[in-house]
Structure formats: C-alpha cells, structure tokens
Design goal:
Elements lengths: L1 H16 L6 H4 L3 E7 L1 E17 L2 E5 L4 E6 L6 E2 L4 E6 L1 H30 L4 H26 L2 E3 L4 E6 L6 E2 L4 E6 L4 E8 L10 E6 L2 E10 L9 E7 L11 E17 L4 E3 L2 E8 L2 E13 L2 E6 L6 E4 L11 E3 L2
Parallel strand pairs: 1-21
Antiparallel strand pairs: 1-20, 2-11, 2-15, 3-10, 4-6, 4-9, 5-8, 6-7, 8-10, 11-14, 12-13, 12-15, 13-14, 15-19, 16-17, 17-18, 18-19
Helix pairs in contact: 3-4
Amino acid sequence: MKSFSFILGLVFLVGCSQPEPNSEVSERSSLEVRIIKVSLDTIPHTQAVSGIVRPVDRAVIAANIMGTVKVARLAVGQSVSAGEILIEMKAEELDARLAQARAALAQTDRDVARESALVAKGAAAQESVLASQDRGRIARAAVKEAEAMQAYMKITAPFDGVITNDYVNPGDLASPGQPLFELEGTSHLRAEVLVPESLPAMSLGSTITVTLNGIIVNGKLAELSPSTDPNSRTRLAKIDLSSSSSARSGQFVRALWPVGKFTTLRIPTTALSTFGQMERVFVVSDGRAQLRIVKTGTTQESYIEIVSGLESGELVIIAPPSTLRDGQPVEIIK
C-alpha cells in the first residue's frame, strides 16, 4: 500500500514539473506575401444563353439536269476545294442537242455568206441578209444554251469545305432539284444562340463573350432577328467567331449576353483557396494573416466576385503560401 502511494505521488510531481507549451502560431516564422486592396468594381452583368456553332457557308448541292451519275467522288468528312469536280453525269440527249445546235449555226453562217454575195451582185434583197443574220443569232443562242446544259453534267464544290452528307452513287439516276450532297465551310463559323425576348437588344458589331468547352472567346454580333418566335419567345442571334478559335460545326456553346452593369467586390482568383466545400481567403490585419470564409459569385477572366466575407479596403493576400496559417506573422512585399 505504501509503494502504491509513493508511485502516485511521483507521477503527480512529474506532471506538475512540465513547462506550459507555447502556441504553435507564435513559434512560426514570418512569411513574405503579396497583397491587393479589395475595392468595389463596376462590371457588366450577363446571362448565359445556349446555342450551336454553325458554318456561315453551307449548301445542299442539287442536280440541274436529269442524267445518270457516272462518277461520284464523295465521302463524308472529305475536304474539298472550291471548283473541284465532285460528280460527273451522263446524258446523251444533251450531247445530241449540242451537236444539233452547232450544225444549225454552221448552216446559218453559210446562209449569211451566200445571201451577202447575192446582194453584192444585185441578185437578192438586203432583207434576206438581215433575216439570215437573225437566224444566225438564234443559232448562237441555242449553242450557248446547249453548252450551258452540258456544263451541268460536271458538278463542282462552290467553296472550300467538308462534305457532311452524300446521297448518290455511280449509276443512280439524278433529276433536277434532287439533293446530291451537302457541303459546309470551315473557315468562317458562327455561334447561333436563342436570346429570350426579356433580354435587351444589342447593336450589330457588339462584342459578345462565348464559352466553348470552358474556353472563353470573344465574338462579334453579326445578326439579330428583330422578331420573336411565338413558341419559344426567343430571338435568333448569330455571333461571328474568330478563325483562330477551336470551334467546330455542331458544337454546343454558351454566349454571355449583356443585361446591364452592377457594382461588386472582386479579387484575383489566385487569392481564393478551397478546403472541402469551404471557400477561403487570407487578409492582413495588424501584421498577421487572418483566415476568412467567403461566398463567391461569378468569375470573369482572372477575377471572381465576392458576395460576402470581405469588406472594401481590406488587404487580401495573393497566392498565399501553402504553409500559411491563421494568425501567422507576415511581411508585405512592396
């Protein structure tokens, strides 16, 4: 019993003799940080409207004559150049019509020459020469018509682009107006979006921000329908995209349509850090870092809106070091 009491007393004395631990923060050394002063900014307010990327140049190429498809150089996804022959057709009746028109022209040329010689000899009236010349002009027009019809037998690409659909194969009979293939240009693209009628109209040429798979690009408003669709209550807007953008035909896009301006607090996105679902920043107060939990809003370029948690005039640490802790001394780098 005596030994047990002795052990308890020894433990009590040892525990009481340990020094009081210092605060972890007080032991940390000072860190150098960069800061920015929080201020109110007036920024444009936008509303996202969805749409699709469409090419400016797109066409459904159809046959102008009736004939049999002899050659079809078509493949979906194939790149073609303007003027490239893609389809050749065969129509023997057009060959015969051209031969007939050329023969009639040759006959009228001989008639004009003969009548002119007779008039020179006084054996024919001048009216006969004029009549022959009129028949010659009619024959030349018939030749041009037949040649134009022959030209329709070779179908070319109207512009540089990519074939998106093909509807014929060699041996098929094509008739006037029948679609043969579809072609889309690749050099000039637009974002076509539906703008609710409640949003304000923008003037043509205005800059509209467009997001493509998270990538932000600026476009120019090219067209805005003045009338509203009675079913969707929206207006069609077409926004020209830069040729350097990564847009593709058929791609889903969002356009940030301006609806006005508002005043708010903003900080650089590099000043914000997250811990779980909490968003936080460090501010400098009395030479020490002070942790703040904030609520954020929209992000525009490299700045993010602060809805709550900060006041105008406070000093926010930019890109805080990972070792920075609440209450730690800091030195501001000028």
